[in-house]
Structure formats: structure tokens, C-alpha cells
Amino acid sequence: MAQRLTTPVQKRFSDVDSFMHVNNIWQQSYFDMGKTEFYTKVLGITGVFDKLRIITASTHTDYYGQVRLADDIVVVTDVSRIGNKSMTLHQQIMCGDKCLTESSSVMVAFDFELQQTVAIPDEWREKLSAYLVERE
Question: How far is 23 from 26, CA to CA, in rounded Å?
């Protein structure tokens, strides 16, 4: 079984708030790092300046524990659903075997020239399907 995509995270001192843990806003930025790596490695796209991009339609996050500056953490990213115009990414911030934060995001294929959602391109769908088969 192939591993889910794992992205190491280098925390910065500025990520820590007055409660001495990594602020939830920065944790969302860590999830974005995982998404970027997922798009690059799985889909072979950057999605940054292309006509067709992936945008966030919805995000839900649960916080189970504090992320501290000294914690050695990674973001684990996986796709849990592929729809017609969207896909759902499931992500976790892990410290060893412990999940500290978990997030689910609905990501939509979006045509920036037309300013509307579009169907996930067949090429992306094929790569996502191959990834799902490979990791099982």
C-alpha cells in the first residue's frame, strides 16, 4: 500500500501566539502547503497562474491538541472524494502518530477567464484515480 502524501513543515517563531502554541491561522497555511504539494505531485500542476485552477469552496477543521514550536510535524494529504466539479481533500497535522489537527476541504475546478466552476478535467480525474488505486 502506498503512503498518503506527507509534507514536512518548518515552523517559524512568528507562527507561535501569546498562548505559546501555533495559531490556528498558521495551521491553515500548513494545510495549504500540503495542498500545493498534492497538486504538484499528484496532478502535475501548480494551479497558480493557469487559466484553470483549483479553489477552496469549503473548509472544516477540528483541533485535537496544541501544536508547539518544538513539535516535529508533517501534513498528511489525501483525496477522499472526486465529484463532477469538485473533490474533497482530507488533511491531518501529525506529530509522530498523534493527529493534532484535522481538516476537510472541498476544492473546486475554476476557470478564471470565464469566472465559473467547471468540470474536473479528464486528465486530472485520471491522475486522481491512479493515485487512489496506487495508495490502496
Answer: 5
pLDDT tens digit string along 9-61?
Answer: 999 999 998 888 999 999 999 999 999 999 999 998 866 667 888 999 999 99
121 touches 102 (CB < 8 A): no
pTM of the model: 0.91
Q: Which residue type is seen at 44?
A: G
Strands (E), 4-97: 5-8, 52-63, 73-82, 86-95
**Which CATH number among 3.40.50.2000, 3.40.50.970, 3.10.129.10, 3.40.605.10 corresponds to the domain 5-135?**
3.10.129.10
